[in-house]
Amino acid sequence: MALVRLQKLLSERGIASRRKAEELILQGKVKVNGRVASLGDKADDRRDTVTVCGKKLQHADMPVYIMLNKPRGYVTTMQDEQGRKCVADLVTEAGARVYPVGRLDRESEGLLLMTNDGDFANAVTHPAKHLPKYYRVTLRGEVKEEQLLPFAQGIVIDGRKTAPAETVIVLSQPDRTVIEVILYEGRNRQIRRTCEAAGLEVIRLRRTAIGSVRMGRLKIGDWRHLTPDEVRSLLVDTNTAQKIAASYIKKGKAVVYGRNKNRR
After folding, report:
1. 105 is catalytic
2. CA 12 to chain centre
């Protein structure tokens, strides 16, 4: 890769817009090979070590796999024509431009995978893989098991019936009921639409796990890199050849956490 102006390099990697990148450089937050950069400096990220706020910029061809605890109010896109908050705003310090793996609707929250590895994303989201996704759903009022039958029976969405989903009542109180839902396909707003068909009101919907990878105690709005074992387990869960992420799995990566300073 030829020498590129730093503001352009940071913009291409999704770290910041060019104007914001210029501000970071002027503030002394960008370094090249340990030296504080100046506006107009150039770098070759294959040979030079570029850091932004102390975090190393990943090489363009280096795969990145992260999990984000998506907050409510964010759409699962990289940019939005309506000016709504996007999940891309929460991972600007990931060191690479990463994209969502699957979706969570705007008012849902929880585990969202993001990566720059298209083969990995396809393996995890392909309908034929039937990778289980786990959700914790809070419903208004006391709910009986028979009211959850639409999940097991399936409902018609866009002219096609959904695959059976599993449900377990975790907590039952007069004013609210918490259930766990396990989906094996990802249809548009499937849980909310199934609840609507069953006459149930959703108070909160949160994804807690995908396959064998669980979100754990990651705070709302924060993200972290997946461990090599987590990447491997997702590929095993989908019966996918591990050559997709072989280099990442073999070399490993220290888990790096990123925080959204504006999280609620």
Report:
1. yes
2. 20
